[in-house]
Amino acid sequence: MALDLASLFSRKKPPLIGLDISSFDIKLVELSEGSDKAFRLERYASEPLPKGAVLDGNIENIEQVSDTIRKLLKKSGTSAKNAALAMPAAAVITKKIFLPATLSDQALEVQVESEASQYIPFAMDEVSLDFCVIGPAANKEDVEVMLAASRKEKIEDRVAVAQAAGLQAKVMDVESYAARAAMQRLIEMQPNQGQDQICAIFQIGAKRTYIYIILNGDVIYEREQQFGGGQLTQDIVRNYGLSQEEAEVKKKTGDLPDSYEMELLEPFLENAALEVTRAIQFFFTSTPYTRVDQIFLTGGCAVVAGLVDIVAERTKISTAVISPFKGMELASGVNEKTLRSDAPAYAVACGLALRRFN
């Protein structure tokens, strides 16, 4: 499926919203150009999904998901009609390949498709394929190319829910790549633009944690672990008879019975710290690197009380919860206090919204 990207490169850069479709909710972010080349957060919002509408990244009920998007558009107040969406990393095959730098654009496209057939375990007519030239290879005679492929049906489902909600899907990204784009902007805001600093980003979602470790703009390690904040939410639901939405809110605020901290929160934090520590050790044992300078926590689980402290204590590494909107101007309708607790969950949606400026 070919997406019309032409409008994204016009001078006026028409409004584009980032839509992050997860198993539990849909998040929206819209950015604009602020002063002095800064970004401006125009609006952000989320809307819970009916149970079972999305399972493990697969859209099971197009009508329910598109209806949720319509509610979200109304809630946010956006008038944008263009959207950037993303596929779960598990649904996308990515591969870096090297091709001769002398190839024309047309020849490069043919060669990419030929190379892709070696790595994709499906018939080529069943997949949507795209690629991006990253830059010159070390030998200068080749270029490094990133190719990405996913089953057409999965992409078409996401396009369908956007269209049913009155939107045009202009960009289809990968969730982990979108989050990474949002985080890279923040790393570049570090002293000396983060040069020579090894930064480990833990994007803790509901069911999975994506880990990517970045050095000087390059991803030197990435991994996915089956761990997420959804486990704590489900424990709260079961123990206190709350709805999923109520449990998510109270998990953030800590407005729960006195037994919560000892019975549910502390075991969860210990497990989370263990997962982070294991991931760092895997990084050390499977790469030539022996240090991590900074850990950034993002994702909806990052703001759980006590998580940042226990991770810093167990790993002995500087750890911070990070907002993808750091350094951005805020529109008058954005509540700064609420944003502080909400922001870490919006890394994917923010990265998608940034595609407006590519």
Automatic annotation (TrEMBL):
<dbReference type="GO" id="GO:0051301">
    <property type="term" value="P:cell division"/>
</dbReference>
<dbReference type="InterPro" id="IPR003494">
    <property type="entry name" value="SHS2_FtsA"/>
</dbReference>
<dbReference type="InterPro" id="IPR043129">
    <property type="entry name" value="ATPase_NBD"/>
</dbReference>
<dbReference type="InterPro" id="IPR005883">
    <property type="entry name" value="PilM"/>
</dbReference>
<feature type="domain" description="SHS2">
    <location>
        <begin position="16"/>
        <end position="183"/>
    </location>
</feature>
<protein>
    <submittedName>
        <fullName>Pilus assembly protein PilM</fullName>
    </submittedName>
</protein>
<dbReference type="Pfam" id="PF11104">
    <property type="entry name" value="PilM_2"/>
</dbReference>
<dbReference type="InterPro" id="IPR050696">
    <property type="entry name" value="FtsA/MreB"/>
</dbReference>
